């Protein structure tokens, strides 16, 4: 069963991850999250609320905009962390790097 098919539209209808995982028969919230990752990779637009409301669908431009801004900010922060860790690794191992290059 696809998670997408079990969700409703609108943040006000979000289903908390623990409840959703149990209702869909997942062993854990992490298993639910893995399934959502697979569905998103296949093109499903499944939103989540960063304040714990849960997962939901949306056709509201404001909700989609807020969600994409949140994801983009997280991606930028993750990339910064990866780049600083790469620089530390390069310093430790004596590797030279090219500006702007990241091979992780």
Mean pLDDT over the full residue set: 91
Instruction: Tell me the structural class.
Output: mainly alpha
Oligomeric composition of the shown chains? single chain
Question: Strand count, sense and closure of the main sheet?
Answer: 2 strands, antiparallel
Helicity level: 40-55%
How is the largest sheet built, in terms of strand order? 1-2
How far do the termini sit from each other? Answer: 34 Å
User: How much of the sequence is in beta strands?
Assistant: under 5%
Compute the number of strand runs.
2
- Determine Rg (CA atoms, Å): 18 Å
- Output the number of helix runs: 3
Low-pLDDT stretches are none
Q: State the order of secondary-structure elements, H for helix, E for strand.
A: HHEEH
Apparent shape = elongated
């Amino acid at each position: 069963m696809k998670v997408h098919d079990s969700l409703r539209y609108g943040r006000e209808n979000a289903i908390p991850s623990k409840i959703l995982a149990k209702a869909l028969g997942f062993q854990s919230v992490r298993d639910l999250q893995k399934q959502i990752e697979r569905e998103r990779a296949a093109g499903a637009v499944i939103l989540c609320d960063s304040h714990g409301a849960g997962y939901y669908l949306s056709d509201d431009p404001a909700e989609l905009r807020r969600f994409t801004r949140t994801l983009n900010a997280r991606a930028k922060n993750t990339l910064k962390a990866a780049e600083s860790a790469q620089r530390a690794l390069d310093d430790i191992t004596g590797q030279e790097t090219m500006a702007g290059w990241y091979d992780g």
